[in-house]
Amino acid sequence: MATIKLRVRRYLIDLFVAESARTHGAYRLLVLDGHSSHATPEFDQFCTENKIITLCMPAHTSHLLQPLDVGCFSPLKRAYGHEIQKLARQGVYHIDKIDFLTAYTRIRPAVFTQQNIQAGFQATGLIPPCPDRVLSSLTVVRTPSPPATTADNHVAWTAETPRTVAQLQQQVRYLQERLRRKSKSSTSVAVRQLAKSAQLAMQSATILAEENKKLRVASQRQQRKRDQRRQYIARGGALQAQQGLQLAAEAERGVAEVEQAQTTQGRQRAPPTFVELLCKTLR
Asked: In this predicted model, what pLDDT tens digit does every residue of 232-245 receive, in sequence order?
């Protein structure tokens, strides 16, 4: 906290006071985000002595009012998330400093551009001045209507990502209701969470399909070994070392053929069973 307060004081003295001294008028306006490092007696005393009027933004509004949050940091967050997802698909689940810096240096040039910075000031209604750009994104608070008699007429919603089919359906009903009312702020949040839920479902399905494939191959390999033992017991013969090695190699080739057939053909044709492969081998 002491380091943060020191940086705030340096910003006031070296940047804000020095740069704003050329402006006309005795007082200057400093817009703050309400961080706790600003709410100190020393900070207030310094602003009073230098005729600085402080104005704190409402809580949870930086994503609407701060130009860099809108134009740069929000795209940076999305781009960084995509980079981490790529690492996760490669089996990297622990992100250390090297991984973070590698991902950050890769995405930073594409995010902190002149176009994005200027778009942030335009989206927040600062340049050119346009308050409606922010006001139109706010949810209008209306007098609540009387409670509905049926559950279908009232759709409850909480700001959480759906995890079940029932929650997903409830989210969809809420979206439909909000779209009819044209409330952009809450609707955009719900749309993002709905997309995230669908993405989680697709990722889970992909992982389960891959695990299921590996389990089928392992199960078929064990079944093939059991069938080989039953064949030699039924024939009453003794299995020599060379024959055992040869059959083991042929069994592995049979499993490889099954894996290749599942990958290339999919559902077009069912792969041969291990019993069929054994019969073919022992002929």
From this structure: 555 555 555 555 55
